[in-house]
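Hey L., structure's done. Input below.
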Amino acid sequence: MNDPRTAFALGIKALEEDDFNSASEHFSAARDGFLREHDQNGAATSGLNLASAYEDMGRFDAALALLEEVSAEFAALDDEDGIAQCELLQGLVNEGLERFDVAIGHYERAISLFESLGDSLEAAATKMNLAGAFEAIGNSEEAKQLYESLIPTLIQLGAEAQLQECIDQAARLTQQAL
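Output:
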């Protein structure tokens, strides 16, 4: 397959079908093709999706190594959204490795970037990940406060699924504290 755009589209389709092995093959081909074409944005975006597939496959070390490259590529493009997505995914990967303190740092950087871009929904979703990491390190009170602080934002954004999750998590943490 020589066309990186076709490979990328097939990678997205494979991700939607939870076929992470196929997704990784397609995104790898897309990344290589975009690099041959000197399309840095296409290469970085394909790399981000490839790292996501690696994360879903439990290939955490490969995901982190690739994310370092991709983050630098997005930085060279002055693409703050791409950098924020890399920070978020690095947080998820480090959480999968139970490196919660490292994950928290990545989540905090992603939140800052999403907020500076005006992406309130992505910032709120990342704050939910941050709350989960706080809970994982035993800081349930901070997690509960973060979930509770997100409720007005999620109401304003009309993000019903995330709102319900925040309400449920805050209630669960409140109940555990009793």
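The mean pLDDT is 95. The CA atoms of residues 77 and 154 lie 31 Å apart.

-- N.
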